[in-house]
Amino acid sequence: MIFASKSPKSRLNRRGIQALIGAVVAAPLGYLFGRYLVALEKAGAVSVAGLGWSDVLALLLAAMMAVVGLVTILVSLSRRTLGRQINPEETRPATPSQVVFYAQNGLVLLLAGVMMAIPVLTPVLFSPLSPMIASAAMTGLIALFLVQTAGNIAIWAQSDELMRRAMAEIAGVSFAILQGLLFLWAAGEKLELLPSLRLWDAASVMMAAYLVIGMVITWRRGLAG
Amino acid sequence: MKNRLKVLRAERDWSQADLADRLEVSRQTINALETGKYDPSLPLAFKIARLFGQPIESIFQDEA
């Protein structure tokens, strides 16, 4: 048994290096994807002119969730690699139940990313958008939503009490903050002091806030350690 | 709430993952308990007490 405890500083350094590698890889990929989109629009293949700030925010969130979900699924394919991520102090491989749990987490995150991107990308890729394509996209979204909800319930059922506490806290804090902000915005809009918000704007902001609140609470609860 | 989990674990030469396996929780939960970021539920506190063969109050101390 290996019981060589790594210091918090060395763990921090490792995570810093991982973040740096991620940034170095992601920045050129993002730039190239942007150039690709511009080229596609010039060729008339896509139409990004109608995208608003909430669409860009939704695509950013979708990309983040999809990439993290994919990486989680890929890591869970190797029991040894997953074991190192779960227990950095040891060399034991992950158990089969841990593999299933992390693969499910990755899949749920990947599906969330796809679901966030579909309403934005469908009108971009199929411009002008026909009612048939829109209905097909909506049907797909509902199917993905049902699969994702089943995945979330399965994750809840397999989680231990700390994870469940964190999930409950994230839901509670998100509800308290977001319903307050929604009320204040709605009041400002009613009093004609604030511009009208589309439901998609609100959904994108709510997802961004939920992810930030989730990161803060999981870090505070020690789930990142 | 303070606890002696890390000391009790070290006395038995168990890693966080070993203790997590015995308590059927994640290693992150053990880490959060030891660093005081999370107080366990009563069922988990009883389980910890049974595992170490000590009363709950000798493992967990209220800081108030």
TrEMBL record, chain B:
Keywords: DNA-binding. It holds the Pfam family HTH_3. Residues 5-59 form the HTH cro/C1-type domain. SUPFAM superfamilies: lambda repressor-like DNA-binding domains (SSF47413). Gene3D superfamilies: lambda repressor-like DNA-binding domains. It comes from the Bacteria. GO terms for molecular function: DNA binding. This is Cro/CI-family transcriptional regulator. It comes from Caulobacter vibrioides (strain NA1000 / CB15N) (Caulobacter crescentus).
